């Protein structure tokens, strides 16, 4: 096994656990800095902005002026910068290390993308500027759309969905609109058991009933069970491919043919597109609609939970139902089609509008920078390196941890393990928290539901071999501790800004906003 | 390729560990018919950083950026000055490149910032609790209607004519599929127009789940919601207030104070910037008793194993990753980084800064309205407003806007753009004045209008 870091140097651990380390006056531990809440340090009269004098005018507020305090403390600029900088240091991030969350594609976020999105022509552009003044913005939307269509070999696109789940909704509404246009009121969507939670939630949000499809022993959709579930009542199927076990659905073409055979459509959850981008085009498999998370495959930052962006590509059959607005190129000129009555024939079928304005422009600019940087050749290398890295992890760890589908062939961009073989009372959660002490963000845990104590590892293509080796070494070490029943692992993490947090208490009596402490109120 | 660390010898060594001869061996499960022999056709090859900057920089320069000329566009997207430190904070890698805080021990930065965000939004809106953000105001608006349906078990929503037409379209699109009934109306240029409180109060009945009213309305008017709130309560319906311009709440009473049950809106004005319409940040607040019906993520306070205060995502049994088809919403990714920008900007403002900023916006808008009223062919709408008001022109407004844009003045949003084909609105021009508008800008607008209307 390689050394824990490349120089071979390892810190002296001593006995330095929480219990024996001396407490500090501040509660800080050198660079680990405690930070109070804004409401405990700011006050209503302090501000970090200077504003000019305002002209004296008679107000036109019809007596609706606020006359009570709002309760919004402020800070001066140095205080505010320090407050949020200190908070930032309590976060793990891709910039700090490998972030192997399966199905989340935590790859490097290139800073060129950030620079391009901040060009004033994009960042300081109002969405309702007359069309002559937005030709460059429409060109970017069109460019990203054309790339996505080429990469999927699908002819239609909706750029406006705000995130993956919103894209799923867009796809299902197009499916409903297509059926309803034929007077066909289908009510059922089939969803495999291994699907992301957003799939059944979206189907319900779109007004469908959800039926499950079981998986086979080897972690794929059971084609026979799927065929048995198909009927003229079935509007469509939502398939994730590669699926959430990290496996390519070998029967995808047969699945699409069977669904089409009963007049249904195939929705593909494109969350895992990073495994095949530049190498396999979902349109060649028979897919009718697929969202693409620009914040996964196309490297726009996750930002601690968004914003995302979830454009949807459509087959010939669904393309006319794509929602408004959309961009068309007429000669050298770009047109923004916002109204059902404007533009060319076919727009009358658009199923409506999903958002105010035109979608996540800031994400389109970043994705465009990423696409242009990689090119067709770079994107092919992306999926190849992503798949290579995941298989490297799978094979490096299969002797230590149970890999339920290792025998059924290579994985795609992520490798899955189960908790089988851990000592009694040791769980996937313990391994995850042990990884935190090793300086890694844990993998996705307890998902998909079809694998017991699932650990889903997606390294992405932006990790060096040295980083992968260090991660493999760390996970091997933590897994061995779980197998041996090392009681100290139960206490992990001990080196993070916080120990394990009581989530049950948080949910039992939710405290969702800050309130003045009771003593302070009494003293007033 | 500068973003890919693996070297040819690494790849070879890794294939050796895997026991594969070539990368193709790892793609054997892809059906042969779908395997590409080379790169995807029709796309260019990789480019240098400099090449990409040139290409995108050229496209950026084709756009008419707001800061490049006198600028008066609003209608749901507002230009405000954002302090430089906001962008600095959100570009810190620890915020920018982190994920949804599923592992709270190493995500306290995001979680505490979200807890601060929730508190700021709840207080600004005058509500007890707020969530950790939605995609934007329009989708938050629909989610609020769905939430009201769940709470009241009724399926009819009444939408005010003052609700942003894009928000109305989003709701209409969704309702078409869910079977909810929506009663909608168009705004009017005359009288008190889009606020139409009397009509809304008369329309609420025992089948109504909610009334949705935007304040300030799409034409800029503001109104007292108290009587409408009472009318809703009397009939067991909920009042949903929509706020597209949060800066207004530095000066006017919050919807919660006026009795709204759910308050949603767009947070873009504070910290986020124009960005051609996205990404923005949806704000969502309500009474504590309804929190289990709320969509979206929630950060909550708790303690760790040592008894230290910390924060976690909570009440996730409402959410899709636990409840699947029974979830309150399908939302997963929200607008975390925009929520952070909102929070940092709001912290820099503080209560004093927000009140001063709002007062400045209002004073400049009043001054501009008085100036523009003197332009021949221009009538300023009556009624109270915050920083946005509607002019009725002597000509159709849409071509006037285009003509002014060609002369280098972005003079407002025509109602013809927002309500195509609606004759009684086509002479309406919505003008927004913020702290970024100077006296010279207003003079330029007055001159451009005069010229276009001559």
Could you characterize the architecture of this molecule?
The complex is a heterodimer of chains A (524) and B (454). Chain A contains 14 helices and twelve strands. With 524 residues, chain A is an alpha/beta fold. Chain A folds into two domains: 113-369, Type I PLP-dependent aspartate aminotransferase-like (Major domain) (Aspartate Aminotransferase, domain 2); 377-500, Aspartate Aminotransferase, domain 1 (Alpha-Beta Complex). In chain A, strands 1-7-6-5-4-2-3 form a seven-stranded mixed beta sheet, sandwiched between helices. A three-stranded antiparallel beta sheet of chain A has the order 10-12-11. In chain A, strands 8-9 form a two-stranded antiparallel sheet. Chain A starts with 37 loop residues before the first helix and ends with a helix. Chain B has 454 residues and is α/β, with parallel strands linked by helices. Chain B folds into two domains: 66-82 and 351-453, Alpha-Beta Complex (Aspartate Aminotransferase, domain 1); 84-346, Type I PLP-dependent aspartate aminotransferase-like (Major domain) (Aspartate Aminotransferase, domain 2). Chain B contains 14 helices and 13 strands. In chain B, the strands form three sheets. Chain B has a seven-stranded mixed beta sheet, with helices on both faces. In chain B, helix 3 (84-90) packs antiparallel against helix 11, helix 5 (108-125) packs parallel to helix 11 and helix 8 (197-203) packs parallel to helix 9 (226-234). The chains are: A alpha/beta (524), B alpha/beta (454).
């Amino acid at each position: 096994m390689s050394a824990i870091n490349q120089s071979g140097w390892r810190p002296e651990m001593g006995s330095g656990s929480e219990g024996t380390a001396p407490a500090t006056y501040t509660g800080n531990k050198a660079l680990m800095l405690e930070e109070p809440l804004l409401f405990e340090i700011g006050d209503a009269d302090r501000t970090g902005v200077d504003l000019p004098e305002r002209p004296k005018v008679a107000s036109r507020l019809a007596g609706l002026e606020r006359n009570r305090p709002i309760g919004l403390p402020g800070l001066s600029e140095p205080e505010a910068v320090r407050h949020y900088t200190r908070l930032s240091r309590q976060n793990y991030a891709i910039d700090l290390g490998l972030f192997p969350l399966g199905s989340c594609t935590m790859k490097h976020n290139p800073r060129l993308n950030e620079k391009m999105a901040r060009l004033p022509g994009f960042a300081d552009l109002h969405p309702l500027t007359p069309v002559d003044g937005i030709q460059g913005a429409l060109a970017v939307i069109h460019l990203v759309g054309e790339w996505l269509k080429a990469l999927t070999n699908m002819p239609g696109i909706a750029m406006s969905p705000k995130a993956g789940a919103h894209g799923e909704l867009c796809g299902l509404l197009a499916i409903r609109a297509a059926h309803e246009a034929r007077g066909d009121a289908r009510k059922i969507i089939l969803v495999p058991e291994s699907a992301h939670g957003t799939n059944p939630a979206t189907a319900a949000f779109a007004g469908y009933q959800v039926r499950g499809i079981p998986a086979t022993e080897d972690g794929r959709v059971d084609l026979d069970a799927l065929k048995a579930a198909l009927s003229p009542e079935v509007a469509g199927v939502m398939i994730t491919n590669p699926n959430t076990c990290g496996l390519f659905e070998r029967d995808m073409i047969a699945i699409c043919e069977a669904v089409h055979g009963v007049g249904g459509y195939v929705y593909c959850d494109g969350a895992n597109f990073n495994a095949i981008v530049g190498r396999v085009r979902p349109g060649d498999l028979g897919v009718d609609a697929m969202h693409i998370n620009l914040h996964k495959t196309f490297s726009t930052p996750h930002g601690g939970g968004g914003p995302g962006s979830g454009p949807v590509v459509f087959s010939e059959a669904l393309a006319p139902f794509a929602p408004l607005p959309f961009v068309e190129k007429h000669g050298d000129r770009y047109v923004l089609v916002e109204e059902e009555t404007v533009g060319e024939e076919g727009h009358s079928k658009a199923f409506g509008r999903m958002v105010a304005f035109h979608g996540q422009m800031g994400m389109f600019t970043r994705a465009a920078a990423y696409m242009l940087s990689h090119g067709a050749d770079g994107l092919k290398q992306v999926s190849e390196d992503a798949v290579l890295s995941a298989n490297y992890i799978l094979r490096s760890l299969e002797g230590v941890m149970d890999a339920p589908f290792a025998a059924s062939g290579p994985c795609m961009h992520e490798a899955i393990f189960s908790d089988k073989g851990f000592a009694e009372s040791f769980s996937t959660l313990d391994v995850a928290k042990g990884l935190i002490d090793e300086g890694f963000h844990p993998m996705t845990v307890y998902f998909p539901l079809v694998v017991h104590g699932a650990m889903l590892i997606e390294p992405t293509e932006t990790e060096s071999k040295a980083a992968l080796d260090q991660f493999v070494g760390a996970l091997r070490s933590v897994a061995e501790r779980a197998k041996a029943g090392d009681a100290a692992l139960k206490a992990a993490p001990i080196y993070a800004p916080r120990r394990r947090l009581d989530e049950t208490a948080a949910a039992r009596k939710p405290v969702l906003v800050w309130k003045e402490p009771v003593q302070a109120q009494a003293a007033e | 390729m500068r973003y890919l660390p693996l070297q040819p010898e690494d790849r070879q060594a890794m294939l050796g560990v895997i026991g594969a001869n070539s990368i193709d061996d790892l793609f054997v499960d892809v059906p042969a018919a779908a395997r590409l022999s080379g790169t995807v056709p029709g796309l260019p090859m990789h480019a240098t950083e400099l090449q990409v900057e040139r290409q995108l920089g050229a496209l950026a320069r084709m756009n008419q950026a707001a800061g490049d000329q006198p600028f008066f566009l609003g209608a749901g997207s507002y230009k405000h000055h954002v302090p430089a430190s906001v962008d600095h904070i959100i570009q810190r890698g620890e915020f920018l490149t982190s994920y949804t805080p599923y592992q709270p021990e190493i995500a306290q930065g995001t979680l505490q910032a979200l807890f601060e965000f929730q508190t700021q939004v709840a207080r600004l809106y005058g509500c007890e609790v707020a969530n950790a953000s939605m995609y934007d105001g329009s989708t938050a608006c629909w989610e609020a209607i769905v939430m009201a349906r769940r709470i009241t078990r009724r399926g009819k929503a009444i939408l005010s004519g003052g609700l942003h037409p894009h928000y109305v379209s989003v709701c209409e699109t969704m309702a078409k599929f869910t079977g909810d009934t929506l009663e909608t109306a168009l705004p009017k240029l005359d009288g008190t127009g889009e606020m139409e409180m009397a009509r809304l109060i008369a329309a609420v009945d025992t089948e109504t789940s909610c009334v949705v009213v935007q304040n300030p309305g799409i034409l800029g008017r503001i109104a007292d919601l108290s009587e409408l709130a009472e009318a809703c309560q009397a009939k067991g319906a909920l009042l949903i207030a929509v706020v597209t311009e949060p800066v207004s709440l530095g000066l006017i009473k919050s919807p919660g104070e006026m009795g709204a049950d759910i308050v949603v809106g767009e947070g873009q004005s504070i910290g986020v910037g124009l960005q051609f319409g996205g990404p923005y940040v949806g704000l969502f607040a309500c009474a504590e008793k309804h929190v289990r019906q709320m969509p979206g993520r929630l950060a909550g306070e708790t303690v760790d194993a040592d008894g230290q205060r910390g924060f976690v995502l909570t009440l996730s049994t409402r959410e899709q990753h636990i409840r699947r088809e029974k979830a309150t919403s399908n939302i997963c990714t929200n607008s975390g980084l925009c929520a952070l920008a909102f929070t940092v900007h709001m912290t820099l403002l503080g209560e004093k800064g927000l009140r001063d900023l709002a007062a400045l916006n209002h004073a400049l808008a009043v001054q501009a309205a008085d100036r523009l009223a003197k332009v021949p062919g221009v009538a300023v709408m009556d009624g109270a407003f915050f920083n946005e008001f509607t002019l009725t022109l002597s000509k159709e407004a849409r071509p006037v806007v285009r003509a002014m844009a060609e002369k280098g003045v972005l003079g407002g949003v025509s109602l013809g753009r927002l309500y195509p084909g609606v004759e009684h609105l086509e002479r309406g021009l919505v003008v927004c004045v913020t702290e970024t508008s100077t006296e010279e800008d207003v003079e330029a607008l007055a001159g451009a209008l005069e010229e276009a209307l001559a």
